[in-house]
Design goal:
560 residues; alpha/beta; Dipeptide-binding Protein, domain 3; 11-stranded mixed beta sheet; 4-stranded antiparallel beta sheet
Length: 560
């Protein structure tokens, strides 16, 4: 069977849509002043269909792109592989529908007041954690308290919270210290993943996750497999369908896709263009769920460490990079376009003026910036004038990324850079970027990284605010922070759009990162696996499918 989905861009409405989050309420009213988007994913012809209605039972093995350091939503940073596993164990208070709008999921409603300074969360009745404890307002308050602790990886996302008030057994009032039109978006991410208070108290969350999700954590052998089993007391009637899911990290991209082709696994996740291309070559034999959105590959730079603390060095790097060549090496020609900022041209947040300011390959400009730094007697790296600029690029041990690192090395060498390549396992790669409390200054020069999300652009406050554990670049720009916070307070979509365009301009000036093409993602499955992209919210609204190679596991089933 083939159920091939063309690459699409998930569009979302302006954050002012959070005023429509009551579970019984949804609208596409153009008079709201929001920007409504239609998803561009379309189904191609299929060679077969399910034999009938969804069936219960069965086990599938899923090949992940990497291992995850742990399962604490406030302690461990989750890349796409970690997010894919986490949705099996943890339900979120909210989720995104097929138009990208935030809707209640584990919550029955999430409602802001008129000036977006208070959000009231009403929970569903009868929901239990895997350990039998009830999901109530006290549990939500306990979870948010962990996210608010100093050093939490999600601290910046919940920093606007002034107080969390338990109004009754199922109602929580979240009071903010400033207007925040996109706060509900935080409840879709890790801060909305509800963890059992008992496991919080036992401090076992990172290694033994206990949530309310459709599957219960069974076992974890790091770098080998993580097993979850059906939650027999799941709060959604008749769900989930599968008895068991086995998650297996296979960092080598070629080995991972071959494990699907050889039937060692029944689902494979990839965020590599070359693997998307290989999967397409076998599209008559497998179901492909592709996505292309506001996520781009590239490199982040440690602005707290010489020589990358000097913008002249970073601009020289930016103007040395030929995106088309990098995309070609990654096998993405014809699949992914070069990136101009963090929004694709199909995104409602995109403003075409960014084309005029975003850095392109320009060796004359690169050489000028490089020479200006090299010949400065007070250059930050302490070397003498005329000596070459040296730094190290870290990359996970994926062959395509190692090839990409060699291209970086050659491209930057044209103007005089001497670049070393360091191979680092994924979990270490992330922990090095985060660094240690209290300053969270990462131990690296440059790292290959993915930047961007399908979330509301407010996520950038966490990533680019001084002191945040997720400010991986360690950028300190008051202009940037002020612009992001102004966007956070602005309910009008067009005004917010212009503010985020200004953010892209600041990035083009400061160069805390460079981009090399938007990220194509795919979940590829055996033909008998269904429900990957057509999951629903409790109110029957369609979810956002397999966006960014992550799905909602409650709807996945086997047709055997």
């Amino acid at each position: 069977m083939k159920r091939r989905w063309a690459p699409g861009v998930r569009l979302w409405a302006a954050a002012a849509a959070v005023g429509l989050l009551a579970a019984s309420c949804a609208t596409d009213d153009a008079d709201t002043g929001e920007a409504q988007g239609e998803g561009t994913e379309t189904a191609a012809s299929a060679t077969g269909e399910p034999s009938g209605d969804p069936q219960h039972g069965g086990s599938i093995t899923v090949a992940l792109e990497a291992e995850t350091v742990g399962w604490s939503p406030w302690q461990d940073n989750w890349a796409n592989a970690g997010s894919l596993v986490s949705t099996a164990v943890y339900d979120r208070l909210g989720g995104r529908d097929e138009d990208g709008q935030v809707r209640p999921a584990l919550a029955e409603s999430i409602t802001p007041n008129d000036d977006f300074t208070v959000y009231t969360v009403v929970l569903r009745e009868g929901v239990e954690f895997h350990d039998g404890e009830p999901l109530d307002a006290d549990a939500v308050a306990a979870n948010l308290a962990k996210h608010r602790e100093p050093g939490s990886s999600t601290a910046a996302a919940v920093a606007p919270i002034e107080d969390v008030v338990v109004e009754d057994a199922l109602t929580v009032r979240i009071e903010l210290n400033q207007p925040h039109v996109a706060f509900a978006d935080a409840l879709v991410g890790p801060a909305g993943a509800m963890v059992s208070p008992a496991s919080i108290d036992a401090e076992t969350v990172s290694r033994e996750p206990v949530g309310t999700g459709p599957f219960v954590f069974e076992s974890w052998q790091r770098d080998q497999e993580l097993v979850v089993t059906r939650n027999e007391n799941y709060w959604r009637d008749d769900l989930p369908y599968l008895d068991e899911i086995v998650f297996r990290p296979i960092p080598d991209e070629e080995a991972r896709i071959q494990s699907l082709f050889s039937d060692d696994v029944q689902m494979m996740q990839s965020l590599r263009q070359s693997i998307v291309a290989q999967a397409r070559e076998r599209e008559d034999d497998f179901n492909l769920y592709e996505h292309l959105g506001n996520n781009a590959g590239g490199a982040i730079y440690n602005l707290a460490r010489p020589p990358l603390d000097d913008v002249r060095v970073r601009r020289a790097i930016a103007h040395s990079i030929d995106q088309d060549e990098v995309i070609s090496v990654l096998g993405g020609t014809g699949i992914t376009p070069p990136a101009k900022g963090l929004f694709t041209s199909e995104s409602p947040w995109y403003v075409d003026e960014i084309e005029d300011v975003w850095f392109d390959e320009d060796l004359d400009a690169a050489q000028e910036s490089y020479d200006d730094y090299v010949n400065d007697p007070d250059r930050s790296d302490g070397k003498g004038t005329g000596e070459p600029v040296e730094f190290t690029v870290d990359t996970p041990p994926d062959p395509s990324l190692l090839e990409t690192a060699a291209v970086y090395q050659a491209q930057l060498g044209r103007v005089g850079f001497e670049v070393d390549i360091r191979t680092v396992e994924q979990a270490v790669h992330i922990s090095q970027a985060v660094g240690d409390p209290p300053d969270f200054i990462g131990d690296f020069d440059a790292k290959f990284w993915r930047l961007g999300q399908e979330a509301d652009p407010d996520w950038m406050v966490s990533w680019f605010s001084p002191g945040s554990p997720t400010n991986f670049t360690n950028i300190e720009s008051q202009e940037l922070v002020d612009t992001l916070l102004e966007a956070r307070r602005t309910p009008d979509f067009e005004e917010r759009r212009e503010l985020y365009n200004e953010v892209m301009r600041i990035f083009a000036e400061e160069v805390p990162f460079t981009l090399t093409g938007y990220t194509a993602t795919v979940l590829a499955t055996h033909p008998g696996v269904f429900g990957v992209d057509d999951w629903e919210f409790p109110d029957g609204s369609m979810g956002n499918g397999a966006s960014e190679a992550v799905t909602a596991w409650h709807s996945v089933w086997l047709d055997e």
